[in-house]
Amino acid sequence: MKIALVSDIHGNMDALEAVLADIDRGGAGAVYSLGDNIGYGAEPERVVRTLRERGIPSVAGNHELAARRPDFLDWFNPAARQSLSVTFEMLSAASREWIAEMPMHRQAADGRLVHGFPPDSATLYLFQMSTAQKAAAMQELPERVCFVGHTHVLGLIGLDGHVLADVGLAAGLNRLDPALRYLANIGSVGQPRDGDRRAAYALWEPQAHTLEIRRVAYDTEAAAAKIVAAGMPAAHARRLLG
């Protein structure tokens, strides 16, 4: 069964609609979100409502933590705080309740889903962690593959016993060695930061040992204009335009 994995939608409904249409065409049997469904983008309520209505489970990202704990806003830079303040005003009571109930990690097949870094951190970035810390975290997990987001950049790390290697993750089909453990960063739907405007998401087939990275085009100019119109920082709109 194909499992679709999305992350870092960030209130970008234009990108989410394009990705969900692509997922539907691809016949995924399940869809999961790795968090940061809100923040930066102009339509957080529509994004959350769509995930709720389609029954797409999500783990909590750092932006969801801010919605649950207002004191956590101090963790963010001023522009992100401004964006989140506008975001909070847009969220319905039902969406806030859904966010409040998100776990810090989930399991799908033999994979663990976490926003930032295993086993359950929504705030740690992969680039903050040493090689030894990454290897230790991967060795301690009961799951063979761990999927994360948070950095908005694709990446794949393989662990063979105690030897860690940066395998690299490219658009298209990537084969996973069943003898290795993996830590995969699946990029961002709503705000990629790798120089490619298109939304990124993953299709994982555990039994076939494959991980396909899909890039989906959408109207980035329209999404950027909505951010400015909503009174959010223009810098977040410019990021969508490359």
Task: Provide a descriptive summary of the structure in words.
The chain is an alpha/beta fold and 242 residues long. It has a single domain, classed as Metallo-dependent phosphatases (Purple Acid Phosphatase, chain A, domain 2, 4-Layer Sandwich), CATH 3.60.21.10. The strands form two sheets. A six-stranded mixed sheet has the order 3-4-5-9-6-7, with helices on one face. Strands 2-1-10-11-8 form a five-stranded mixed sheet. β3 and β4 form a beta hairpin. α7 packs antiparallel against α8. The chain is globular. The chain starts with a strand and ends with a helix. The mean pLDDT is 96.
Key features of this structure:
alpha/beta; Purple Acid Phosphatase, chain A, domain 2; six-stranded mixed beta sheet; five-stranded mixed beta sheet
Provide a compact summary of the structure.
This protein has eight helices and eleven strands.
Chain-wise SSE layout:
Blueprint: E1 3-6, H1 13-26, E2 30-33, H2 44-53, H3 62-68, H4 78-90, H5 93-100, E3 105-108, E4 111-114, H6 131-140, E5 145-148, E6 154-160, E7 163-166, E8 172-175, E9 181-186, E10 199-205, E11 210-216, H7 220-229, H8 234-240
Parallel strand pairs: 1-2, 4-5, 5-9
Antiparallel strand pairs: 1-10, 3-4, 6-7, 6-9, 8-11, 10-11
